[in-house]
Amino acid sequence: MNNEELREAVREKYAKAALSAKDSCCSDPITANLYDASETNSLPREAVQVSLGCGNPTALAELRPGETVLDLGSGGGIDVLLSARRVGPTGKAYGLDMTDEMLALARSNQAKSGVTNVEFLKGHIEAIPLPDASVDVIISNCVINLSADKDKVLREAFRVLRPGGRFAVSDVIVRGHVPEDIRRNVELWIGCVAGALQESEYRAKLASAGFQGITVQVTRNYDVDEPAARDKFVSAFIRASKPAQAGP
Question: pTM for the full model?
Fold first, then answer.
């Protein structure tokens, strides 16, 4: 499968999920119990049902009032709406998605929630439609692993962050060697994973893009029947920052 075929497969899967507004493309071990009821009680039901992530980056990103946040692959909008609340009326939350059906659902959820400091953009995470140094924080929830060009995603994230800006994403990663045939089977089981990186690869790609202060915190370990893959596939919260004196 080439890059465009992979992108189209991802688009088709998420379009179907948006239209059903209930069927996750990922298995329950990935998506279950990521948010507290106190966070989701006032959100539209569809935003919660089409939460297809593997973590809760808004809870871990330490968002502050007045900040501008960008969610890469924002889906039905749950993390954008939660971020908008955290940054308050003086802040702004952008959501970026390539799928028309997801964008329509996210905008509907925004209207139902009454949140106004939100804007949903159409585009690819490999070519973010925002100016250089325009956001304070980038979040993402189990989406970067779906890209066929992760280096470009991370370079774009670095570009749009302001100096001193923060990268704070949830993603699926692989820890240690997994035989290729078993890896493919596990990725089919997990559902959301098109190409999860080894932890060391993720760190190296972030550093190559210019990021510093890189940390990886495991948030969920996925039980796998295959002995060679046990304890290898995890969700992690990945933090990094753009140097305060960095150029765009």
Answer: 0.81
